[in-house]
Design a protein that fits this description.
Blueprint lengths: L5 E6 L2 E6 L3 E4 L8 E7 L4 E9 L7 H20 L3 E4 L11 H4 L2 E9 L3 E9 L4 E9 L6 H11 L8 E6 L2 E6 L3 E8 L2 E7 L3 E8 L2 H5 L4 H8 L7 E7 L7 E8 L11 H11 L3 E9 L4 E9 L4 H10 L9
Antiparallel strand pairs: 1-2, 3-4, 4-5, 5-9, 6-7, 7-8, 8-9, 10-11, 12-13, 13-14, 14-18, 15-16, 16-17, 17-18
Length: 327
């Protein structure tokens, strides 16, 4: 958990600690972990830019790569704010001994530029994940403690996760998903967020709904779920059960793809398990909960032939929600 005023940011294995008022505004059109660009802004102007690409060759010319990157910066920002003065090899984080974790496994160099805006940046290639990362923190001239802010952000920046999970964040929403899953669908709307992932054999959908009190309209979470997911769950026999002893009410859904021998009016999960092992039916598991403090509804779903329950549970526990923490 970050301290007040700061938040975790994560995308495609990249992770950093940033001021909480910086919001994601620019994201890659293609969900490609091997290359992309994204940007975080505040209410005034861009604050953090990240660009990355895979580089599997042994030879890496960091000077040439930086030249190309700085050429793009001059073109982009000179058109917006006028001419800028660029300086290379600025030792923003100079103490190698005290920042050994930052320099580990990286060939890197710093740069800075000034004009109507100013920036501190860094470029490196990681010898472990073989990614080239180019990043810069931007501010208005004379901004108090800008150097310290840039140092903190860039020092926290990582190009790959050291665990089996990747962090994904957007608009105050955080979730951790196993690294083997690739993002294949994304919706970042006013009142609704969807992250959808696949590893080829199973799928994950993580959703957050806003204005939950209006969505529920005095009804139950179960009634809302049946209404909202009626179309997507067509052809699936499922049961919904409340998680007892917890407030607010949380629900668990366990479902399987329909078959002829299933009874429509009653589905005996225990009796069907032997058939499931024989025919390897696709199974869908979901957990949903209403967080009244945030006025949000969270839904985590996974489907596939392996039992998705452990997968769903792990994702649920990664979401910083008062309700999720008690599932």
């Amino acid at each position: 958990m970050s301290e007040e005023g700061w938040a975790r940011f994560g995308w495609q294995g990249l992770q950093a600690e940033v001021p909480s008022q910086w919001e994601l505004v620019g994201i890659p059109k293609e969900h490609d972990p091997d290359q992309g660009y994204l940007r975080l802004d505040d209410a005034n102007h861009p604050r953090l830019e990240l660009k990355w690409r895979a580089h599997s060759q042994r030879q890496f010319d960091i000077s040439k790569t930086l030249d190309e990157y700085l050429k793009g910066i001059r073109k982009a920002y000179s058109a917006q704010v006028g001419q800028i003065e660029v300086r290379r090899d600025q030792a923003l984080i100079p103490d190698l001994a005290a920042n050994e974790d930052f320099y580990a496994d990286r060939e890197l160099t710093f740069f800075s530029w000034k004009g109507a805006l100013q920036a501190h940046g860094v470029i490196w290639r990681c010898s472990k994940c073989r990614r080239i990362v180019m990043s810069q923190v931007i501010a208005s001239p004379g901004e108090p403690a800008f150097r310290q802010t840039a140092m903190r952000v860039l020092r926290s920046l990582r190009d790959h996760s050291d665990t089996s999970r990747n962090l994904w964040t957007a608009y105050g929403f955080e979730v951790e998903v196993p690294r083997r899953y690739r993002l294949d669908k994304l919706q970042l709307l006013n009142g609704y967020i969807l992250f959808s992932f696949t590893d080829g054999s199973s799928r994950i959908a993580v959703e957050r709904y806003g204005l939950a009190d209006q969505a529920l309209r005095g009804g139950s979470l179960e009634a809302w779920f049946r209404r909202a997911y009626a179309k997507s769950l067509r052809g699936t026999h499922f049961v919904l059960e409340p998680t007892t002893g917890l407030e607010p009410v949380q629900m668990t859904m366990d479902g399987r793809s329909a078959r002829v021998l299933d009874r429509v009016d009653r589905w005996d999960i225990g009796a069907s398990r032997g058939w499931d092992q024989l025919f390897r039916r696709s199974r869908t598991m979901a957990r949903m909960w209403y967080d009244p403090d945030r006025n949000r509804i969270f839904v985590v779903r996974a489907s596939g032939k392996p039992d998705p329950t452990p997968l769903v549970d792990g994702i649920v526990f990664s979401i910083p929600s008062q309700s999720a923490a008690r599932v």
